[in-house]
Amino acid sequence: MHLAASHDRCEIVELLCNHIKRIEHSGDCSLAGGETNVSSPQCSCPTIFPRLNDKDACGDTALHISIVENRPRIVSTLLRFSKSIADTPMNHYGTTTKVLLKKPQHWYRPLHGALRDLKLVKALVDGGATVDLPDSEGLTPLVTAIHGKDKEAVGYLLEHGADFLISCSKHKETTVLQEAADLCSAAILNRLDTKDPRNDLSTNRGRAILLEAQACRKWDIVQNLIRHCRAKDCIGKVLDGEKIIEYALRYSTVPVVEFLLTNGANPNCQLYYQDDYWNLPIHVAAEVNSIRAAQCLLKREASLLSKSQREELPSQFAMYFAGPETVGWFLRETIAAIRKQTKTIHIADTMTRFLVESTALACQQGSVEILQIVLKIGKQEIDDLPKMGPLLHIAMHWGRVQITKYLLEAGCDPTEADLRGRTPTQIPFSAFKGHHNAPSNSQEDYQECLKLVQEAIDLRGTTDTTAESTTNQMQLVSTTTDSPTSRRDRGTAEAPPKPNLRQRPKQTVALAQAFAPRRSRRFLGISMK
Question: What's the pTM value of the predicted model, to 2 decimals?
Answer without folding.
Answer: 0.73
